[in-house]
Hints:
- The complex is a heterodimer of chains A (83) and B (415).
- With 83 residues, chain A is mainly α.
- Chain A has helices spanning 2-13, 16-19, 41-52, 69-82.
- Helices cover 51% and strands 0% of the residues of chain A.
- The longest helix of chain A has 14 residues, at 69-82.
- Chain A is globular, with a radius of gyration of 12 Å.
- Chain A starts with a helix and ends with a helix.
- Chain B has 415 residues and is α/β, with parallel strands linked by helices.
- Chain B is built from 16 helices and 14 strands.
- Chain B has helices at 5-20, 66-79, 87-90, 94-107, 118-129, 144-151, 165-174, 198-207, 230-233, 263-272, 274-277, 284-299, 302-321, 340-352, 382-398, 406-413, and strands spanning 29-30, 37-41, 49-53, 111-115, 135-139, 156-160, 181-186, 211-215, 242-246, 257-261, 332-338, 355-356, 358-360, 370-375.
- In chain B, the strands form three sheets. Chain B has a seven-stranded mixed beta sheet, sandwiched between helices.
- In chain B, a hairpin with a 6-residue loop joins strand 1 and strand 2.
- The longest helix of chain B has 20 residues, at 302-321.
- Chain B is globular, with a radius of gyration of 22 Å.
- The relative contact order of chain B is 0.14.
- The A-B interface holds A 13, 15, 21, 33-34, 37, 39-40, 42-43 and B 136, 138, 140, 147, 150, 156-159, 161-162, 164, 171, 174, 363, 366-368, 415.
- The site of pyridoxal-5'-phosphate has 14 residues of chain B, from helix 5.
- Pyridoxal-5'-phosphate is lined by residues 117-119, 122, 143, 145, 186, 190, 215, 217-218, 246, 248, 257 of chain B.
Amino acid sequence: MEEVILEYIRNEYLDEDDEEDIELDSKTPLISSGIVDSFSMVSLKRFLEKKYEISIPDAEASAEAFDTVANIVRLIQRHQGDA
Amino acid sequence: MAYPSAIREVHGSQLSEIREQGLYKEERYIHSPQSARIQVEYPSGAAVKAVVNLCANNYLGLSSHPDVIQAAHAALDERGYGLSSVRFICGTQDIHRELEAALSAFLGTEDTILFPSCMDANAGVFEAFLGSEDVIISDRLVHASIVDGIRLCKAVTDTYKHANMKHLEQKLEEHQGKRVRLIVTDGVFSMDGDMAPLDEICSLADAYDAMVFVDDSHATGFIGRTGRGTPEHFGVLGGIDVITTTLGKALGGAAGGCVSGRKEVVELCRQRARPYLFSNTMAPPLVAGALKVLEILSSSTARRDKLEENTEFWRRGLTEAGFVVKQGESPIVPVMLYNARLSQDVARDLFAEGIYVIGFFFPVVPQGQARIRTQLSADHDIPLLEKALEAFERVGEKHGILGLDKKGIIEKFGM
Lengths: 83, 415
Ligand SMILES: Cc1ncc(COP(=O)(O)O)c(C=O)c1O
């Protein structure tokens, strides 16, 4: 799951010439570092919901919950548990 | 009245943190009108020094133009200093409407509404005509004032990679279910000096039934054959639904901004835009000055032509000297240094050489993208720029960066 989300973020947020400069792993801050802008979180949330067949309430889609891939994975696993 | 010492300490430590991170912005005191050559006191208390100004938005050299000053003087005598009112109470003089009409004619739009600044125009415009059933799809490098305006609006938000049309197309497809899709971009990007490909953006907008918004603050008056801005450059004059721009840069540089475009959008701004409704009207001397600026620009392209010539000379000169220059055609010419400390050191050494420029680094530009942003003006001339170029070469030589590419600079100085 981690790899799938990292791949999405690489495609969606990094340009070819950034890729060599920016190291991205599950602990890299995404929003606080400026890699992911808060305006596109809707898109990221929608991708996760579709991919993992879950529904994330808006209240839980905070900048904090989305700030690292590790956090995102935790959030998804919690919701998959619900289903 | 209560400002307990504990809170004072909290604020104090926030300020120290800003200093420790090297992000503290120090103002330099200018003792002369805005121009190609200015008198600068820096650091504070130091003797005033004559320097060449390469960091003003005075693209057309109109900030201190005698005809503009005279027009402002005349309005001061005839219409007074200020109006002490918002527009819709008793703050609209005939000249305000005249300026709005002149801007519409210049930009090739249906109607225009003035704001106290372009920051205010961007803060108010989105909320005035979009709601929760709409989506705003913005370029990831749009100006901070647009970011704030989008935040104030209830529309759904999304972004696309800087100037990446494939990505924009994906996003337009994804949001076909929305009532309005608004594509939002700067015309010229202020930190990079590159332009949004408005021809392609307009084609996509046609194909995917979207509106187009352009902030042309760094283009109005000089980009395009007759200075109408990026829409003219890309052959889509009259095709942009909403343009915002400023009177605070090329157009005299005093203050003021506007929203120009579809007349219903302009009218909705007049009824609803909060920075328009709840902030004072533009002062008469500024309105008259801006009218004179538009008159000057409509009668001759000499100033934008000279600016273009200066820009070409400068871009070529820096590149040949061995600096890494962001490619583009605008008079915003960033010299890439990547490392924040290096950008500060180079700016300081240039100041000692009599060249006034500023180093920009994170968070104003992305991490590892520090640079010196140089900006040309029609007030500059080639001999002046030749001297400035020599100073750049001396400083570049001193730091051993001439001829190095991005990799070379990063290897030597780190990110
Ligand atoms: C792209 C852009 N939009 C808006 C503004 C704000 O303009 P004003 O100074 O009129 O508020 C600026 C100026 O910094 C700008 O660069």
